[in-house]
Amino acid sequence: MPNLIPDAEVLCEQLAAKIAEQLTADSVLIGVHTGGVWLAERLHAMLGISEPLGTLDVAFYRDDYSSRGLHARPRKSEIPFDIDDRPVILVDDVLYTGRTTRAALNELFDYGRPGRVELAVLVDRGERQLPIAPTYCAHTLTEPLPAGSRLRLVRDDAGVLSLRLLDA
Amino acid sequence: MHNPQLNAKGELQHLLTLDGLPRAILEQILDIAEPFTEVAEREVKKLPLLRGKSVFNVFFENSTRTRTTFEIAAKRLSADVINLNVATSSTNKGETLLDTIDNLCAMGADMFVVRHASSGAPYLIAEHLQATGREHISVVNAGDGRHAHPTQGLLDMYTIRHYKKDFTNLTVAVVGDVLHSRVARSEIAALTTLGVPEVRVIGPKTLLPTDLERMGVRVFHDMREGLKGVDVVMMLRLQNERMQGALLPSSQEYFKVWGLTPEKLALAKPDAIVLHPGPMNRGVEIDSAVADGQNAVILPQVTFGIAVRMAVMSMLAGGK
């Protein structure tokens, strides 16, 4: 079995350690719904960031809207601080084609002009369709996952995070 | 039964009336509207959903507020918006409604927002588009005759849900000139579908339609009696311009009996909210003290109206 699905809790600790090395006093975290927000909530607490957590739902910026329409119930994006000239760390659970990150970047720039944007992800599953790379990544898959399968972060009732591979 | 508003997959294709629209669709519109309210707080008040689409506001009857809020909604979704005041244009030169629509289609319309004095005009346009293989073009009814004003009904539902959270424990009163009101018809349809257990209609006999009880509402001809213990008061505008013949003695007389004053509002629950679709006739159906008072949510209604119209347009334009 080339790809063992790693323990999300362990990866979360490792990701926090990687970010902590580069963290500046004015850094802010913005999680991308839904898995990215759960992860960002953890990182926000572990890194002791003073500004509240920001969240983005990229539903209104997706590039498949004209073919697929609006599907899941979109949530409010909330960025309760000024992002102009600040270092922003975008947080998502899994980096795959890069299209979600593209949408998140577009949405982010409708709130202002950040000084720097970095990307933190728990898992990079490869197979990018856009020129996007993570700044911080806890785990990189060595082999492609089956086409159409979805790798998702899930959170149980006790708040424990884990990664699940869902079939197409 | 065939519902011309829904496509084969049961998704919203046109928005013509709230009557007969499934609860799931109503709730979906309200859910999608919620995140749109946040856009007004951003530096760039725009979303890219309708980029490259042309929305034609075709108003065969005058309206400032409805047209403006549709225009803002479409522009916040990045659409190109073309406003046509047909009331002062080609139909006066003898062009038929469907010829006007065909011409606008030839100009590249993706969506029509239609206001018309005749009930059923938006239906006629939707069926015409359907019959001529132009299903990709959507129609939104922005008020047709005495029939329906679905986006007003939806923004009222959004407002109620915003303040009261749950529809299933509410008593709601619709007050005034129901006979001439397309708003009232849309409100009653939506309230019933969303599970409001008690909808009351309050008004003088001459301004209430005769078939009201069939719509599942309780009718009151005494305002004080009808307002007792209600959670929501939905005022209607006295439709002076639609009034033909002597249905009322005078507007002063109307105010005395049917105007919402602080004294009458005191019969409702203390935390009752007061809605009005605008434009208000102060001193006719509503006292200034109520219109400007703490129970009134009339200005939030206008703001929510933009988000609700954004939700409708983005549901219609996507997935084609």
From TrEMBL, chain A:
The keyword Glycosyltransferase applies. One of its GO terms (molecular function) is glycosyltransferase activity. Keywords: Glycosyltransferase, Transferase. Pfam families: Pribosyltran. The keyword Coiled coil does not apply. InterPro entries: PRTase-like, PRTase_dom, PyrR_bifunctional. Residues 10-132 form the Phosphoribosyltransferase domain. This is Bifunctional pyr operon transcriptional regulator/uracil phosphoribosyltransferase PyrR. It comes from Viridibacterium curvum.
Automatic annotation (TrEMBL), chain B:
It is an enzyme of class 2 (transferase). Pfam families: OTCace (PF00185), OTCace_N (PF02729). The keyword Transferase applies. L-aspartate binds at K93, R182, R237. Carbamoyl phosphate binds at R65, T66, R115, H149, Q152, G278, P279. InterPro entries: Asp/Orn_carbamoyltranf_P-bd, Asp/Orn_carbamoylTrfase, Asp/Orn_carbamoylTrfase_sf, Asp_carbamoyltransf, Asp_carbamoyltransf_Asp/Orn-bd. PROSITE patterns: CARBAMOYLTRANSFERASE. Residues 13-161 form the Aspartate/ornithine carbamoyltransferase carbamoyl-P binding domain. It comes from the Bacteria. Keywords: Pyrimidine biosynthesis, Transferase. Residues 169-315 form the Aspartate/ornithine carbamoyltransferase Asp/Orn-binding domain. It catalyses: carbamoyl phosphate + L-aspartate = N-carbamoyl-L-aspartate + phosphate + H(+). Its EC number is 2.1.3.2. Pathway: Pyrimidine metabolism; UMP biosynthesis via de novo pathway; (S)-dihydroorotate from bicarbonate: step 2/3. Belongs to the aspartate/ornithine carbamoyltransferase superfamily. ATCase family. Heterododecamer (2C3:3R2) of six catalytic PyrB chains organized as two trimers (C3), and six regulatory PyrI chains organized as three dimers (R2). Catalyzes the condensation of carbamoyl phosphate and aspartate to form carbamoyl aspartate and inorganic phosphate, the committed step in the de novo pyrimidine nucleotide biosynthesis pathway. This is Aspartate carbamoyltransferase. It comes from Viridibacterium curvum. The lineage of its organism: Bacteria, Pseudomonadati, Pseudomonadota, Betaproteobacteria, Rhodocyclales. The gene is pyrB.
